[in-house]
Amino acid sequence: MDRSHLLANISLFESLTREELVALSQGLEEKSLESGQTVFKQGDQGGEMYIVMDGAVDISVGAGRDAITVASLFPGQYFGELSLFDGMPRSATATATKPTHLLWLGRDDLVKFIDADPEGAMRILSEMSNRMRKTNELMSSQVSRNVVLEHEEQLTFGERIADKVAAFGGSWAFIGCFFAVIAVWLLSNIFLPYDRPGFMLLNLVLAVLAAGQAPVIMMSQNRQETKSKLLAENDYQVNLKNELGITNLQRGHAELLQRLALIEKHVERLAR
Fold first, then answer.
1. In the chain, N or C terminus with fewer CB closer than 10 Å?
2. Is the distance from CB of 169 to CB of 217 less than 8 angstroms?
């Protein structure tokens, strides 16, 4: 298998040229794990990025019963890419959930690539900047909107009339008026002595009413479907922002626990 294709599927490296991907892929090494074996633990020193070739890996935060699985990764997916650049301790634990085969790239190999190809390094940094910019825009923007009100403000005069007609046609007021007109028509044909509209005309009026009302109701239903799509899209944006916020909170919580552990160790050393 051409390992450069695996790197091309990673967002950090997707802007690299074919030659640069081949050069970077030379540093990839293989690693096999059994089910339940740990790739790295939360707090371990970072410095490698991993690509799942076969099997599956769970990323979790915390330990023991308090552990929370934040992601499940399968062939073609990757993790630990940020440690290539900062070398900071791991903010989560990675565990193989089945026999797993990984490819990993070390920080030293990335440094060699950067030294040999500064232009490729700039493309990687540009990609990281774009990702951070998009995340900042998403987190800083207000995604919860009154999409129904925005949609209604864009309606034409004819569409507003269609909605009002459809709303009245589906109300008890319309049903009451309808039966009242039918009752008056029937009584006038039965009891009034002078010439009166016949039942054939009533049949024609009802047919015209049904034929005219049907497309108006369909127009209104189409706009209701549009509103539902807008609401679904808005819900997706809100959920995505919440997910990013929760992920950042989990990472912050993990880093806080790491720092507290370091402080406790330092206090114990001072106490001795």
1. C
2. yes
Confidence grade of residue 100 (pLDDT, cut at 50, 70, 90): very high
Query: Which residues touch 202 (CB under 8 Å, ≥6 apart)?
Result: 182, 185
CB of 163 closer than 8 Å to CB of 157: no
Q: For the segment 136-171, what is each residue's pLDDT rounded down to a tens digit? A: 665 555 555 566 666 666 777 777 777 777 777 777
Entry pTM:
0.48
Burial 126-164 (b: 16+ CB within 10 A, else e): ebeeeeeeeeeeeeeeebeeebeeeeeeeeeeeeeebbe
List all residues 6 or more positions away from 31 whose beta carbon is below 8 Å from its beta carbon: 50, 101, 102, 103, 104
What angle do the packed helices 199-271 and 118-140 form, to 10 degrees?
120
The tokens for 170 are 């589906």
Cβ atoms of residues 202 and 210 within 8 Å: no
Angle at 124 between CA 117 and CA 139, to 5 degrees: 165
Beta-sheet pairing, 57-61 with 100-106: unpaired
Confidence of residue 197 (pLDDT cuts 50, 70, 90): low
Residue 79: name the closest of 39, 19, 115, 136 by CA.
39
Q: Which two tokens stand for residue 233?
A: 């899209």
